[in-house]
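Re: Re: token formats

Sure, here are both.
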Amino acid sequence: MKRKMALILAFLMIITMFAACGNGGEASTSAEASQAAPPPVASSAAAVSAAPTTDAGPNTNADGLIIPDEKYHLGFLLSDGADQMPSYCRKAAEALVAAQYSDIFEITVADANRDADRQNQQGIDLISLGCDALILYNFNFATCQPITQAANEADVPLVTVVKRLENQDDATAYCGHDDVTAGERSAEIAIDMLGGKEAKILVLQGKLGTDSASKRTQGYHNVLDNAEGVEIIKEETANWSRTEAMTVIENNFQSGLEFNVILCNNDEMAIGAGLALQGLGENLDDYIICGIDGTQVCCESIQEGVVDGTIYLNSTSAVGAALDILYKKLNNLPYEDYFFDVIKVTKDNAADIIQDWEDLAAME
């Protein structure tokens, strides 16, 4: 235990050193799509609370989990603790460790603050200090090779959550969703709301070159390219930003571009699109605006009529699955990747998703 405490203290000193560094890297809100079909998950609060079970026996706790002689030190590499989704994943991890793995794991969270280089160094430092297992919520899916290389060389299991890596095969496992499917479901919401009417569609993409933006947009095309009476007339990046989305909408509107559907790669851009049209004096009933992520603020915007739909990614359920996989890996038990379903959100069920977020926020 003294070794573990020394490890944590040493790493906290390193994090403090990196806090003075500048930000870099790229922003992305989701994972690379997997080709496997995801099973449905009823709610993230229920999924996060799921715990693995084994046959009770010597050296096991009340849940049947094997208790190690000394707790495993778990590192959680976080992309951006100020962002809602990563912050709730952090809360879910800490709550689960405290509630169900308290005699198995002790956890150290390292926040990269949207800096890919910092995240790489934090991962390398945790491994060099003797970390036993890692969860990675990556900031830049294409730049994590230093972490996976260090983990493999040290034989430290590493599970990625929510966002797949470009070199995902170098990780132990992945727990998350399918971005192509998310894009498809978002386009389906728009088609359903159109009810057979014609549509000119403006697509707001996340940062160009990011895997999430590419695959979500691919999902739109999978549904819309062969749909009758609808056309994607323009794709433009707004870099995942509400403010940039407002500017893009204002510029296109003032240029005379005609559109009545706006599909956005994330919720923040969808909110920005709706607010921009409101500011221009437009009737939002004449437009269909859809996002992806299912954040609480977007669900509230759906209730207010600013946004019409989103896709709830239920990402915190990935954390519970990641802990399960790491526990099994450390105990030489069989495991496999975990994929959760995406959920269409409209006014009909926005209140249910908001309640799910409130349940997560209440976890301690």
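Second one below.
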Amino acid sequence: MSALNLKDIYNSFLKELTAGVKNRDHGMHIIQFGTISSSGPEIRSVVLRRVHFDPLKIFFHTHADSPKIKELLVDPRSSIHAYDKTQKKQLRFSGVSTLVTSGSIYEEQTRKMTASASRCYLSPYAPSTLLNDYHPNLPDIYMNKAPTQDEKLSQYPKMTLIEFAPHTLDALWLRAEGHVRLKANFREKEVSLSWLAP
């Protein structure tokens, strides 16, 4: 019989995810987000911005003109991968994503954004646009300075908040004394947990 408590282990995984929001040096501050395009799977790194519980939801920002937006409009199925090398814990979520462009959560996230970070949403080109020459995709006037607060507000239409709702979680904890792996199913009203073979 296992001496480990399934729910306690599950909560320890979510604790690391929450730490990734608050601590930019945490391994789960940068997560990998996967979508499905017309040519196949796509994956990229994004910054974890917010985690909600009951039910679990994961949030991050993206540019409104980025390819991932178009992909999600066609097929909202998506995935998230997070790994913290210090704790040696890996999270693999599968679920669906919703685009958020208004409301209290959206407004709160835009207020939290630094003026320097807002430059990314004032870009002259849509992300992934083919260019003839190198360009950092920042407006010339903000190449070496951040926008003012008023100028920062003008970027809101180009920022989209992605709300990811997981259907399942496959979580792995690497340990010398024996790896630990579990599955969480979020499709029911109550989260169901089960052990998996590592």
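The beta strands are 30-37, 40-47, 50-52, 57-63, 77-84, 89-100, 159-173, 180-185, 192-195. The chain has one domain: 6-195.
- S.
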